[in-house]
Design goal:
Number of helices: 5
Largest sheet: 7 strands, mixed
Helix content: 25-40%
Strand content: 25-35%
Number of strands: 7
Distance between the termini: 13 Å
Order of helices and strands: EHEHEEHEEHEH
């Protein structure tokens, strides 16, 4: 089996990848994640997943390198990671009663032949937030502390209580790595999954 590199420092993505593979290396990449003017959020996610995979693949020959990125979109605008309690609360106020799209892209850079071949996919998850009052938002943020999560929630924790419904093809994608798509891409690269 070729060596596999996850081009990410995200503990969430590493936990998800452990569902599929026992041995892989994590490598945080230093990629500028700034959006490009006029770029749609879905295109930003795809571009950044590709950049992360290619950046790490340059330093790992004879490997399969996985890059992933997620961009949350509300009313056509990208939502970033809040970084503070106040911004998380403000972001949840914005999302309350609305539907947020989560574009989760994955790219596998196959660097085994000396030339990088790219295999890519994109999952879109629609999250319908229920109406939320300030007390609910405050209680939620203080309990889950979702400061490093776009959309200001942790789906795998109490964040699920904030929604009316979630529409997706891949439940893992909302956490940050679309495993259904990734399995398909890894099989295209010759890995036996399962």
């Amino acid at each position: 089996m070729p060596s596999v590199v996850l081009a990410s420092g995200s503990r969430y993505r590493a936990e998800l990848l452990r569902r599929l593979l026992d041995g892989f290396t994590c490598l945080a990449t230093d990629v500028d994640e700034s959006p490009v003017a006029g770029e749609r959020p879905c295109d930003t996610a795809v571009r950044l997943a590709r950049l992360k995979a290619c950046s790490a693949a340059e330093h790992h020959s004879d490997s399969l390198v996985i890059g992933s990125d997620q961009v949350a979109e509300l009313d056509g605008q990208a939502l970033g990671k809040p970084g503070s309690i106040e911004r998380a609360q403000a972001q949840l106020r914005q999302c309350a009663g609305k539907t947020v799209l989560f574009h989760t892209a994955v790219c596998v850079a196959d660097n085994r032949s000396g030339t990088i071949a790219l295999h890519e996919g994109l999952d879109i998850t629609r999250v319908a937030f229920r109406p939320l009052d300030d007390a609910e938002i405050s209680r939620y943020v203080s309990r889950d502390m979702p400061l490093d999560c776009a959309g200001s929630f942790k789906m795998e924790r109490l964040g699920v209580s904030l929604f009316d419904r979630v529409e997706c093809a891949d439940p893992a994608a909302i956490v940050g790595l679309p495993l259904v798509i990734l399995c398909r891409l890894l099989r295209q690269c010759g890995l036996q999954i399962p």
